[in-house]
Amino acid sequence: MAEEFQERTEQATPKRREDVRKKGKIAKSYEFNSAIVILVSILVLYFGGSHGYQKISNLTRFVFSNLHLIEISKDNVQKYVTFFFSFFSLNFLPFLIFLMAIGVGANIIQSGYIFTLEPLKFNFDRLNPINGIKRILFSRRSLFELGKGFLKIGVIGLTSYFVLRGVIDDVIVLMDSDVNKIFNLMSSLAFSLLLKTGMLYFLLAIFDLAFQRWEYERELRMTRQEIKEEMKELEGDPLVKLRIRRRQREIVKMRMMQNVPKADVVITNPTHIAIGLKYEPEKMNAPKVVAKGMNLIAEKIKEIAKRHGIPIVEDKPLAQALYKLVEIDEEIPPQLYKAVAKVLAYVFNLKKKNFKSVV
């Protein structure tokens, strides 16, 4: 019960985002889709409308020129219907398919490809009239949609007013013009009105898309308790645990290899085990293991040691004891002090001799 009163202040986790997306809940603006389709339709009509107009004009001219030859009867009605259906399908169906593709593309641009049947599942809460009234009257989204509806009406109305006011004198003169001039002016006027309205509608759609995404992120927020429960659930997954342990081992291995150049000596088995030891009397109570490994890791440790001039000492019993008893970054136990001291004394004496010979 306490969880119900917690504020949703935390950003959604990747798992929650994935779960919500699988249910078909995404941030999407229908206004954005409509605006894209409208603008593309206007541009297609502007650049290809003359072709469609010519087709319809030729058909109209043919029909009216042959009215005296057309007979409507039971035998030829199907023939005429088939003819007109084929005509409009061949000339305008590609345009409609193209617009459908644009609409699908606008959806993919917003939220990527997603296919789920989850929204089609029966949900009794949707039939609850109280919940429906709350969504309609008291939700932030419904108020926004109401304001957006008034804004769309205002945009279309004001745009139409200013466009028509600028050409009212030209329209009045059309009373004495021929049909072609009337058609050309009205076409130009319609395109100008549609284009300006479409551009303003597109700006409104951008604003709506921003709001939908903000509202979506807000609804995705989680309480701290939900995050804790999700973390427990994830940590309980054996595969997740395995990946975490594997990653931890990789990090430890990487850090260990970086510490090998800092070692004073590497003690080997000689081929199966390698132990890197470091001792700073001023800072440490006892020598510390900075790296250890078997087989391939041991070979890598010895390779790095050779590259940095670190002495490599073969001592099978000591190497095995250090590998079993001491973890990385731990000091050696008292029972190994004597054996390790002999090795370090040998290494330090070797370094002094090398230093004197160089000098």
Automatic annotation (TrEMBL):
Keywords: Bacterial flagellum biogenesis, Bacterial flagellum protein export, Cell membrane, Cell projection, Cilium, Flagellum, Membrane, Protein transport, Transmembrane, Transmembrane helix, Transport. InterPro entries: FlhB, T3SS_substrate_exporter, T3SS_substrate_exporter_C. One of its GO terms (biological process) is protein secretion. Gene3D superfamilies: 6.10.250.2080, secretion proteins EscU (3.40.1690.10). The keyword Membrane applies. It is a multi-pass membrane protein. It comes from the Bacteria. The keyword Cell cycle does not apply. GO terms for cellular component: plasma membrane. It is found in: Cell membrane. The chain crosses the membrane at residues 30-49, 83-109, 149-168, 188-211. Belongs to the type III secretion exporter family. Required for formation of the rod structure in the basal body of the flagellar apparatus. Together with FliI and FliH, may constitute the export apparatus of flagellin. This is Flagellar biosynthetic protein FlhB. It comes from Kryptobacter tengchongensis. The gene is flhB.
